[in-house]
Specification:
With 280 residues, this protein is mainly alpha-helical. The chain is built from eleven helices and five strands. This is Fido domain-containing protein.
Length: 280
């Protein structure tokens, strides 16, 4: 994993271009570049708009992003800085498409003429999701072999097949918690189901990491990429955001909320994990 090039710091940019801010803003730069949320790592290789250098371009884009950005309390980093969501044009379009297509699929299932047909449709959807998500996580199993295994109920023969079975069985059980608040115990139970038979240390499943488990995220050559918050903060941090109630003043799109919950679990590194990119 290549570590991205860090962008110039805000104070540094203001020291250089503070007197030119008006001219930079007159370019009416947007939060995205041709529909993409470019990071400095890639942006500084692109050709900036006429009259601007890469740093001035970046400064203008950052102004646009800050104008759109909204904090999502209680999500914050280790230093107490709030994480923000920037609902740019392309993100809003994608959220619309996801919501429209997902709603259409669910409504299509509801309109099926029999309960048996609806159950088969939902079962196929769960199978597809279990296979796809496991393959993204590294399960080296072909789709056809995985389908045959899930359809016949055959026992998994290797680590990749076990991941697929675990994902499938867990997703079938998630409806048990649909109307309940997310709690650490619920997360632990889900984690135990997902990792059953896949961890080098089975005792690492279904619990917070301990203070003596110094989990960090490194690349293949040992470069530190992420050091999560202290273990003592995990009980409070883990579920607070997921249980926020939407109202007229604070609404977070369900897809964005799901993404942020996923991000939060990774950022916290709540469990002791033996994957190759997490080291103790």
């Amino acid at each position: 994993m290549k570590q991205p090039v860090a962008p110039p710091a805000w104070p540094e940019l203001f020291n250089r271009y503070g007197e030119q801010v008006g001219a930079i803003l007159s370019n009416q730069l947007r939060a995205e570049v041709r529909g993409k949320n470019e990071h400095w790592d890639h942006l500084h290789h692109l050709t900036p708009p006429a009259g601007l250098n890469a740093e001035q371009w970046w400064l203008g884009i950052q102004f646009a992003r800050h104008a759109l950005g909204r904090p999502v309390p209680p999500l914050h980093d280790k230093d107490g800085n709030p994480f923000k969501v920037v609902p740019s044009d392309s993100i809003q379009r994608r959220l619309f498409l996801v919501a429209r297509d997902a709603a259409g699929a669910l409504q299509g299932a509801d309109r099926m003429p029999s309960d048996a047909m609806r159950e088969r449709y939902l079962l196929r959807s769960l199978m597809e999701e279990a296979m796809t998500s496991s393959q993204l996580e590294g399960a080296a199993t072909t789709t056809q072999v995985a389908k045959d295994m899930l359809r016949t109920g055959r026992a998994p023969r290797d680590h990749g097949e076990r991941m697929i079975v675990n994902n499938f069985l867990t997703m079938r059980e998630l409806k048990r918690w649909l109307d309940s608040p997310l709690t650490p115990n619920v997360v632990f139970e889900i984690h135990r189901m997902l990792t059953d038979g896949t961890l080098q240390d089975p005792g690492a499943a279904g619990r917070f990491r301990r203070a003596d488990e110094n989990i960090v995220v490194q690349d293949e050559i040992g470069t530190l990429l992420h050091s999560p918050p202290p273990a003592r903060e995990l009980p409070q941090r883990l579920c607070n955001f997921a249980n926020l109630v939407d109202d007229d003043k604070h609404f977070i799109h369900p897809v964005v909320r799901a993404i942020l919950v996923h991000f939060q679990i990774g950022y916290l590194s709540f469990r002791c994990c033996s994957r190759s990119n997490m080291k103790t």
